[in-house]
Structure formats: C-alpha cells, structure tokens
C-alpha cells in the first residue's frame, strides 16, 4: 500500500508561483508513474501532468509551459512547480501513483488547495 501526502498549497496572486510536493511511502517509488490532477467543485477531475518512471513528462495543454513536474526518487517525493498562475488554476490539487507505469492510477492523495486571486 502506497500513501501519498500533498503539501504546498495556498493563496497566491495571479502571476505568482507555488511549488507543490507529494511525499510517497513505499520502496518502489522510482518505478511508478506519478501524476498531478486538479478538481474544482462541481467539475470533473482534470489531468495536469504526469512523470513517467523513465523520466519523461507530459502536461495538459492548459498548463504547458507554466507548470513543471520533477521528482526526487531518493526522497520519494514529486514536485509541481507552478509559475504564471491564473485564477483558473484555482483547484484542489491531487497527486496520484501508478504502479504499472501505464497511466492507470492506483493511489491518490487527499489533495492540497491552490487559490489564485486577481
């Protein structure tokens, strides 16, 4: 069983930056694909980006060029650096783990709130 804990959310003005962290338990973090998702109340959960176990990353078009995923396998931690934030980035951000590295997420954190004000 893998446990994921997000941190780093908060309130920021438009144009600002935040860095989210996702700390994972377990010994096989490096073999997992890890992803970030976000959700606004009343809307479906939205894909933000993914870090494959081999190091490749992919992003949603809405965040491409502004958000960057990195991971420190020695610390079992993934990060989401968010720059040039917009009010529409306001959401509850979740990290997720995929033990198969196929884009099917088996484990989810509880989320951290990001609020971007004008």
Describe this structure in words.
There is one protein chain. The protein is mainly β and 118 residues long. 0% of the residues lie in helices and 50% in strands. The strands form 2 sheets. Strands 2, 4, 5, 6, 9, 10 and 11 form a 7-stranded mixed β-sheet that branches. The chain is globular and about 40 Å long.
How many helices does DSSP assign? 0
- What is the helix content? under 10%
Biggest sheet character: 7 strands, mixed
Question: What structural class do helix, strand and pairing data support?
Answer: mainly beta
Give the SSE string: EEEEEEEEEEE
Oligomer: single chain
Shape: globular
- The tally of beta strands, per DSSP, is 11
Kindly provide the radius of gyration, computed on alpha-carbon positions and rounded to a whole number of angstroms.
Answer: 13 Å
> CA-to-CA gap between the ends?
40 Å
Point out poorly predicted stretches.
none
Task: Give the SSE map.
Layout: E1 4-7, E2 10-13, E3 18-24, E4 33-39, E5 46-51, E6 57-59, E7 67-72, E8 77-82, E9 91-98, E10 107-108, E11 112-117
Parallel strand pairs: 2-11
Antiparallel strand pairs: 1-3, 3-8, 4-5, 4-9, 5-6, 7-8, 9-10, 9-11
Please sum up the structure shown.
With 118 residues, the chain is mainly β. 0% of the residues lie in helices and 50% in strands. The strands form 2 sheets. Strands 2, 4, 5, 6, 9, 10 and 11 form a 7-stranded mixed sheet that branches. A 4-stranded antiparallel sheet has the order 1-3-8-7, with no helix packed on it.
